[in-house]
Amino acid sequence: MVSPTPNKRGVVLVADDDPVMRLLMLEMLGQVGLDGIEAEDGEQAVAYFQSMAPDLILLDVEMPNMDGFSACREIRRIETGAPVPIIMVTGGDDIEAVTSAYEAGATDFVSKPINWPILGHRVLYVLRASDAIVRLRMADAHNRAVLAAIPDTFFRLNRDGFYLDYEPGNEMHGHDAIAALPVETCVGKHITEVLPRDIADRLLEQMRGVLDTLHVRSVDYELVRFGVIHHYEARLVATGASEVLGLVRDISERKRTEEQIRRLAYCDSLTGIPNRQAFLETLERELHRSKVGNKKFAVLFMDLDAFKRINDTLGHNVGDHLLKIVSERLRETTRPSDLVSRGDQSHNLARLGGDEFTILIPDLERVENALAVAHRVKEAMRRPFLIEGNEIFVTASIGISLFPEDGDDCNSLLKFADTAMYHAKNCGKNNAKLYSSSLTMQIMSHVKLEVGLRKALKNEELYLLYQPQIEVRSGDIVGVEALVRWRHPERGIISPTEFIPLAEETGLIVPIGEWVLRTACNQARAWQRVAKRPLRMAVNLSAKQFKDENLTQIVVSALHDTGLDPRLLELELTEGTLMDDARATMATLEQLRGIGVHLSIDDFGTGYSSMNYLKRFDVRALKIDKSFISGLPQDSENAAITRAIIAMAHGLKMVVVAEGVETDAQLGLLQEYGCDLVQGFFLGHPSPHEAITQMLLQPCPEPAPTKSELSD
After folding, report:
1. Who's near 492: CB < 8 A, 6+ residues apart?
2. What is the pLDDT of residues 604-626, one digit of tens each?
3. Is 564 in a helix, a strand, or coil?
4. CB 527 within 8 A of CB 536
5. Dihedral (CA of 366, 371, 373, 376) sign
6. Which residues pair with 571 in a beta bridge?
7. 492 φ/ψ angles, rounded to the nearest 5 degrees
8. Across-strand partners of 141?
9. pLDDT class for 703, splitting at 50, 70, 90?
């Protein structure tokens, strides 16, 4: 554990019981120039806060001895100076966890899984916001001290409300509507003759209270002077049985400072529209109003489709600019006249964070009205965005929840709108969907499956099957493809088409892929010892694995630990993975080729490979997708495509593997076309390693005769 260092500006206290999480957090903080102190639990975090006085605290919610919420409350209880910013690291982005964090005194929150690249920048933003608030408060304190040092305007009133005395303060001259009046126009006059009637009545009411209780009272009021609103505070104190002394101070600057602080707390710093906290408070007020008035309203949850791609390709500056324009379009699309013109609509639109926005539609008469707003929002997003010479196109997915049909509390309505939004994305994006209870069941099933998948590796529920790859000319098994399977303890065998996309979505494909690689390499080495001949092992790499910066190290480690010759390992990648970022792809391929492993393109013919890049990628093999093989030999178009792929691959000195061979006729046609290797149910189903061992120990079959040999 890193020892606490002497406190200095830019020090962040990281409290988490997981040493790996602490290490990652410190690494991300170090990249933005911040130092860190580590705490293993809540109690240690509180102790380090008292002794080290960090500039910011990152608190994990789940910790032994004292959890994050308790530690946050304790720090707030014992701190004596300016509040230190506290960011809670929650286990999920649900409203309950967020609400608990804010109730405990947190400044902000970060939800798991953590977006590591932006963590340090998020911390810097919170530090800057905290510093801004401290500076504003210091400025306010300074202003108050200056004003206190300068004599205020004072006056004396009798019980009946007549001025007995009046003396303008030095700072009021030329600014105060009262001070602008000559003394002789006030003394002897009734207060209603000097001030507007409503202000005079309030002062008279408070004056009588002061005379009755002998307690100091104050009245805030506004006066318009030359078209500018000035805020004043009049403090009243009894100076006798029937006299009151009033001290008047211009508090306009304090009001402006308070408004700035309020904007920092409730306004999104990037777009200028309300933030999550402001929207939650607006939603709470609307919920109460609608319950009392028996009204309906809708919550729209909008997320931009593929926004991450824009950030990754064009940069975060362009992404931020896009979010600003998006917020402006939303403001135009959901202006008060579009919703329902009642009161202040300024908080009906908010940015929750990232590319997520919410819209509140009050006084909803029909569901169609909410769908109409969602349609206008979608159309507004589809118009091109011109940023820094780039014409950018985005779409939006929108989820809608309704009060009271879908829920009667803020948390449920926002969560259900979010659920409906994800359903809209799953339906092809650029969609708007209403929430239904069945969606929650789908989400729960999805979450349950994800939890099970996270435990699958640890509980040894994953296993490999191997499908033989046969050399067409000799009929020998020259390789196998490793295929991962999952035996769920309750549901039994779960199809890879169900759990592989989930693993991709959650990032679990990386540790699962590493396990597959190690297990397959170890098995290939075992077969080599048993069969006394080499056998190539083909392992699929997902897009996430291929982009993992540790991929080369993982492959080297697996080969070293298992003792497998690198030339017997073949990594299969799809066309889409290779073409996603050609420059980065070339660098990764060079690293893998440097190790000595072979590379092949899987499902060839279904993607969008450029012939130029295909030549530069220098892969060993192309695997013709089974969709082209399934129609052979009857499908003449597929036959032509298959023949062309084989000829092209041979021209580039690549080996051709045909997948999905299921009939003798297909095998014969592929042999005629000169295909090198084949795999499919006709030649062997995906099988346990024991079955492959038996096949390897059988005598090799006689080479299959060619068509010319048969004719001879």
Report:
1. none
2. 866 555 566 666 777 888 898 88
3. coil
4. no
5. negative
6. 539, 599
7. 80, -145
8. none
9. very low
| Cα end-to-end span (Å), the chain | 78
Q: Which is nearest to 26 in space by CA: 93, 123, 98, 101?
A: 123
Per-residue tokens: 363:
């006084």
DSSP string, 195-249: S-HHHHHHHHHHHHHHHHH---EEEEEEEEETTEEEEEEEEEEE-SSSEEEEEEE
Q: What's the CA gap between 361 and 345, in Å, rounded?
A: 10
**581 confidence band (pLDDT: 50, 70, 90):** low
Render 357-396 in DSSP notation, one character per residue.
Answer: EEEEE-S---HHHHHHHHHHHHHHHHS-EEETTEEE---E
CA angle 95, 97, 102 (to 5 degrees): 90
Report which residue type is found at 480.
V
Measured between alpha carbons, how far is 462 from 541 in angstroms, rounded to an integer? 17
Task: Compute the average pLDDT of residues 348-377.
Answer: 91
* Cα distance between residue 95 and residue 449, in whole Å: 22
Token pair listed for 572:
């299969």
User: Which uninterrupted H or E stretch holds 110?
Assistant: strand 108-111
Q: CA dist 601 to 535, 542, 624, Å?
A: 19, 12, 9
Q: For residue 502, what pLDDT is reported?
A: 84
Write out the DSSP string of 157-187: EETTSBEEEEE--GGGTTT-TTTTS-HHHHT
In the chain, how many H helices and how many E strands?
Answer: 27, 26
Contact 220, 251 (CB under 8 A): yes
Look at 44-48, 76-80, 699-703 and tell me which has the smallest mean pLDDT. 699-703
Q: What crossing angle do the helices spanning 437-456 and 496-506 adopt, rounded to 10°?
A: 80
| Among candidate residues 523, 500, 524, 522, the one with its CA nearest the CA of residue 512 | 500
Distance separating alpha carbons of residues 470 and 478, to the nearest angstrom: 6
Report d(CA 144, CA 163) in Å as an integer: 27
- 366: CB partners within 8 A, 6+ apart: none
Question: What percent of the chain is modeled with pLDDT above 70?
Answer: 88
**Cα within 13 Å of Cα(624), Cβ side:** 33
What one-character-per-residue DSSP string does 501-538 give?
Answer: HHHHHHTTHHHHHHHHHHHHHHHHHHHHHHHSS--EEE
CA-based R_g, the chain, Å: 36
pLDDT, one tens digit per residue, over 300-338 is 999 998 888 888 778 889 899 999 999 999 988 876 544
Average model confidence (pLDDT) for the chain?
84
Q: Which residues contact 68 (CB under 8 A, 6 or more apart)?
A: 15, 42, 59, 60, 61, 62, 88, 89, 101, 104
| pLDDT at 678 exceeding the cut of 90 | yes
Q: Which of 419, 313, 433, 425 is nearest to 375 (CA)?
A: 433
pLDDT of residue 514: 93
* DSSP sequence for 596-651: T-EEEEEEETSS---HHHHHHH--SEEEE-HHHHTTTTT-HHHHHHHHHHHHHHHH
Strand partners, 402: 298
Extract the tokens encoding 617: 């990628």
Residue predicted with more confidence, 99 or 47: 47
